Amino acid sequence: MRFSVFISVLRSLGPVVIGISLGFTLSLLSVSWTEEACLVGSGEREDVTSGRDGLLKGARKPNSIPAVNDADSEEGFEPRIVPYKQLQPSAPKKVFRAKYISTELGMRERLFVGVLTSKNTINTLGTAVNRTISHHFDIVVFFTGLRNRKVPHGMFVVSHGDERLIWNMFQTVKYIFEHYINEYDWFYFVQDDAYTEADRIKVLVEHLSMDRELYMGRPEEFIGGETEGKYCYGGFGYLLSRSLLLRLQPFLENCRNDILSSRPDEWLGRCIIDYTSTNCVAEYEGLHYHHYELGKNSDPSKEQSEEFRSALTVHPVSDPEQMYRLHRYFSEIELQRTYDEIAKLQAEIKNVSVDAFEGNRSSQWPVGVSPPFEPKSRFEVLKWEYFTEEEIYSCVDEAPKCELRGVDKLDVADVLETAVQELNNKYMPTLHFKKQQLINGYRRFDPTRGMEYTLDLQLEVVNQKGHSRSITKRVHLVRPLSLIEIIPMPYVTEATRVHVIIPLTLDDRSFVTRFLEVFASNAFETSENAVLTFLFIYDPVEAQHVSQNDIFAGVKAQINAYERKFPAVKIPWISVKTETPAPIKFMDIISKKHPVDTLFFLAQVSTNVNAEFLNRCRMNSINNWQVFFPIHFQEFNADVAYHNQPRPATVDLVKDAGHFDRRSFDEACFYNSDYMATRSRMVADVQENEDLLEGLDVYDMFVKYSGLHVFRAVEPALHQQYRYQPCNPKLSEEIYHRCVQSNLEGLGSRSQLAMLLFEKERGNST
């Protein structure tokens, strides 16, 4: 029994005892080898070390140091002085950063459209093509040999200077390589005698991979049949991928020298086939390039074939009128298709909402439109506006009610017409509705969905038997927000010099001192890139005595004083004589004295100009694109706004200190080239009516004659001191009325004026 217990203990502890014994034995052996090596003399040590280097290095103790001579040891530990050598600063490497993020990231636009036109058709078919497709694509460029002196407005035309067809095709492809090959993934070329359904081309391109070498259009056999392969017939247009053009680029000169052809599309097709071995295809991975050949004198409205209805391009088009008829026909098809898709989606939403947690309530009305905004607090509750057919009870000037006019009147009329039309669509032929009057109308703008309306209508209802009666019915309507679109704008910088133009009359002299102080602190002292110019306006009597009694002598003395104070600053002035001050006549004089690319800021002497506004003037004024008319903050009359109160040193943007004067159009930012182009369009009307120049201001001139974007916005950085503005009765009635209203509204707020009247009445009663 004891023996079995001993065996079991030994069996469990045996491996441990054997392991410990083996470890001690190996450690004793290694210590004996190391001690033997350390007892060897110095001379023998070198031999041993060299002969058994690997063994001794592995067995040497970690803290053992080889014995060396004392001199060598001292030299090894003696400190050394390393001389400091200053590194010569190298010129910093200039880092190039792209102007746009898309360029730096290698992002490209999807489709480039090139239209092949000619001198004889650019003003007819070319214009029709531009009007039907240019607003659908990011860029449309018209390529021609020679062009007329007068190019249609709004068209980007590239002229190659020669009417040879093959030469023009070669120059067109070369121009693409030089300017657009790195900006677009696909290139679409079409003649000006073909109609293009723009949306379908865009859908086709969106489903094509950009890295494919693809040559797509209507395949055509080469003339004579000697050349293998097929080219794309140019009449129906064709698509070229960027990858294919990049592969073709090194051989373009060879194509010009080696390939002979009478047709540009055939020449390009042979070039592509010979050097890239890519044939024209009409179908690729299930995507088809549909086209339709239009018969002579055919009417698009009578074409009912499915081939015609699904066509991407239609050719040939004989005249602009036929182009517009085709555009109307295909637009109606796409519009009806859109309505059908909307109805289908609405039905699907209703069917799915039945199985939702909240049932049909989860399907908001109208179906497919975002749900109404839900306020989180009482301060976020949207306000409803009450209106009738003649008046609205929510006015800009805080009046209790005002006349319904302009776009508001058109909006209400459209909503009433739509409401009756929708009721008839729902209940006819059983019932027919006619509007008698609007009893109550409410509307509010919901930023998440659009404009909402609630209407109480008094209607006349007529049934199928001809019996009628008058009823009152409440209807709800929503004008949803459409798809938000980013409009591409030309690139502008804040480095442009601004020429500030200040017209001065006899009554404006008292404001000059304050204006120069503010302008000097904001522009002269900070070296702002701006030039100040004064326009001295004399009447005939004042001009006769200018040598003896110059009414602007004090102003000129102040100008000289500032020029001496700031030697780098020059303040020019221009003197004019006139009986009737007219803004356009003054600008004609200033325009002739400045270069075409000058950026003007036309302002008043009571305006406080600072650097913040000048930068916005530069950014919002775009040459050949946009002019800027800021709405300044007009200070109230201090006697009214601060009656029996001390006047503050600075005026803040608060409702009791002033208001944004929406009736003033005195300040304007625009380029001289835009002014000259607009002014030239007035010549015919001025010849018929000589008083036109005196009846218009600069704002009305740009609105009526320029064709540019007129950008009008409140400008918090532009303050104007209170002043009574003399109104010129020789201007148009509308401009004169605006001036009078501006003076009246600039006196003070309604509550301030009411308080003055109350105090006056109370003083009279006592």
UniProtKB/TrEMBL annotation:
It is an enzyme of class 2 (transferase). One of its GO terms (cellular component) is Golgi cisterna membrane. Keywords: Golgi apparatus, Membrane, Signal-anchor, Transferase, Transmembrane, Transmembrane helix. Its EC number is 2.4.1.-. The chain crosses the membrane at residues 12-33. The keyword Repeat does not apply. One of its GO terms (molecular function) is glucuronosyl-N-acetylgalactosaminyl-proteoglycan 4-beta-N-acetylgalactosaminyltransferase activity. It is a single-pass type II membrane protein. It is found in: Golgi apparatus, Golgi stack membrane. InterPro entries: Chond_GalNAc, CS_glycosyltransferase. Belongs to the chondroitin N-acetylgalactosaminyltransferase family. This is Hexosyltransferase. It comes from Oryzias javanicus (Javanese ricefish).
